Amino acid sequence: MRNGLLTVILAGLLILGIAAFLPQAAPVHAAEDDTPVRTLSVVGRGELEVKPDTAVITVGVSEVKPTPIEAYNALSDSINKVAEALKAKGVKEEELQTSMFQLAAEYNWTQERGQELVGYRATNTLSITTQDLDKVAELIQAAVQAGANDLRGVTFQVKNADKLLDDALKLAVADAKAKAELVAGELGAKVVRVHSVSVQDQGASLVKARAGFNMDGVAAEIAPVPVYAGTSTFSATVSVTFELQ
């Protein structure tokens, strides 16, 4: 019995020893593809030109008086007259907005006397929003005739600006795709996927007609000045890198 157990142990050790010298199978690894990825970078541009549908007219009234209270009261009377004249032309209360109100000392400087207080200037700037672009010149005329003596200008806007910017961006992406497919085709390659993309620029070029002059002393009767809305441009630019095959 003892000899049989010893024989089994020796046989096991012999098998293990032989196995140690047998060649081991190497683990299987997926072959790595060292082929560099071919890419093509293009810039796409999209642009839309639309006619404005909203105008914002900015006019102001400025009064200089010996005391602050006199300047304030004079300004209050003048700006109310301007507002009433605009309402008489069909402008609604919600289409009027005070964009600036200021009361400050007014000084004059001469070489002989230096700086002297000449009074107090009160200023109120009013913004008028209208969708009737044909009435812009008429509204300016009404405001000036009612006492507005500071014409700041007119800005033309588009109400659905966000959607138009999105549409311009879509055009830019489509332009980038078309350019990439054209170039790849000429090189005997094929566009397979987008590698990277960035939006470089997106914005609108709105029309702004500036006047920026004081109208003190202008005659009560003035002719309406033609105002042209022109067009507004919405644009977008994208940079896209495509992988080629």
TrEMBL record:
<dbReference type="InterPro" id="IPR007497">
    <property type="entry name" value="SIMPL/DUF541"/>
</dbReference>
<keyword id="KW-0732">Signal</keyword>
<feature type="signal peptide">
    <location>
        <begin position="1"/>
        <end position="30"/>
    </location>
</feature>
<dbReference type="Pfam" id="PF04402">
    <property type="entry name" value="SIMPL"/>
</dbReference>
<protein>
    <recommendedName>
        <fullName>DUF541 domain-containing protein</fullName>
    </recommendedName>
</protein>
<dbReference type="GO" id="GO:0006974">
    <property type="term" value="P:DNA damage response"/>
</dbReference>
<dbReference type="InterPro" id="IPR052022">
    <property type="entry name" value="26kDa_periplasmic_antigen"/>
</dbReference>
